[in-house]
Amino acid sequence: MIIAQISDTHLLANGSDADARDRRIGNFERTVAHIRGLAPQPDVVLHTGDISQNATGQEYGLAREILSGLKSPVLAIVGNRDRRAPFAAAFAGDGYLRSGAGFVQYAVALNGLRLVAADTIDEATPMGGFCDDRLAELDAMLCEAPDMPTLLFLHHPPKAIPAVPKPHQFEPDEATRLRALIGRHEQIVRVLCGHTHRADQVDVGRVPLSTVPSIATDLRKDRYPDALADTPVYQLHEVGEDGTVVSRTCTVSASREDDE
User: Fold this and answer.
1) Per-residue CA distances from 156 to 58, 110, 241, 244 (Å)
2) CA-CA-CA-CA torsion sign (180, 185, 189, 195)
3) Least buried of 62, 212, 224, 257, by fewest C-beta within 10 Å?
4) Domain count of the chain?
5) What is the per-residue pLDDT across 156-185, written as a single tens digit (0 to 9) for each?
6) Which residues contact 13 (CB under 8 A, 6 or more apart)?
7) Helices 57-67 & 18-36 angle (0-180, nearest 10)
8) Using an 8 Å Cβ cutoff, are 129 and 174 in contact?
9) Which string of b and e fits 13-26 if b means at least 16 CB within 10 Å?
10) Which residues are registered as beta bridge partners of 106?
11) pTM confidence score
């Protein structure tokens, strides 16, 4: 099972800063073209949030247009720059969102792996939030398939990332409850996040949690050589039958054999 993870495209619509808009569109289009050229193809592409910058219908329409270039199915989740209603309007046609749900949380089974999305938007702050209603909803979804290896993906990491200037990017009490929930569900083999705009890994108890850089290279926080200053990177995660996850970072300008 091969999963491509992209995140934090922060697309801008017409009328916004032209240089940033064009650069982010170009970064996204090049990334999609690179994923499309992989052999074998990913079984699924995950977008872990902050699809748009301003959560407008025009920005989501642009995202849909670019993502249509992929051969693989796409599962997306909301980030702090996204808003639930316009996100749902743009992606409801793909069939994985739950009709009438208040939160963007869902589960999809694919090739023996369960992919579970959690909604971490706190509309009052860019920090991650996870209220009791979402916690109960996520717990119920995880309880539906306790024996199936599960990958949980969400935008905000619910644990401090030490290398980030503000390591905690989640409301503390809510992060604690979410980490406890992850610990109770032993079928979870990996947690994938965005938000930090950099590649890092920490453990949530026994479960590895990783973040990916922003596809928008003008917003990326990692340091890269000058030659890669405008080269998007994303990650591929290969999940074995036993639930083991092996991850690597891919540079868009490189052939697959040259990926780091």
Assistant:
1) 24, 24, 27, 23
2) negative
3) 257
4) 1
5) 999 999 888 788 899 999 999 999 999 999
6) 21, 54, 56, 58, 59, 62
7) 30
8) yes
9) beebeeeebebbbe
10) 117
11) 0.95
What element of type H or E holds 190? strand 188-193
Domain interval for residue 70? 2-258
**Beta-bridge partner residues of 245:** 239
pLDDT tens-digit map of 112-124: 999 999 999 998 8
Structural tokens at position 47: 């977008």
Structure tokens at 87: 């996100």
In three-state secondary structure terms, 78 is coil
CA distances in angstroms from 45 to 41, 98, 221, 224, listed in the order given: 10, 19, 22, 24
- Torsions phi, psi for 20 (to 5 deg): -65, -40
The structure tokens listed for 128 are: 């991650």
User: Do 13 and 231 touch, CB atoms closer than 8 A?
Assistant: no
Residue 101 — very low, low, confident or very high, per pLDDT cuts 50/70/90?
Answer: confident
Closest CA to 1 of 190, 184, 182: 190
Lay out the sheet containing 188-193: strands in order across.
106-110, 113-117, 150-153, 188-193, 207-211, 200-204
Q: Give the CA angle between residues 2, 157, 109 to the nearest 5°.
A: 35
CATH number of the domain enclosing 64 = 3.60.21.10
Cβ neighbours of 162 (radius 10 Å): 8
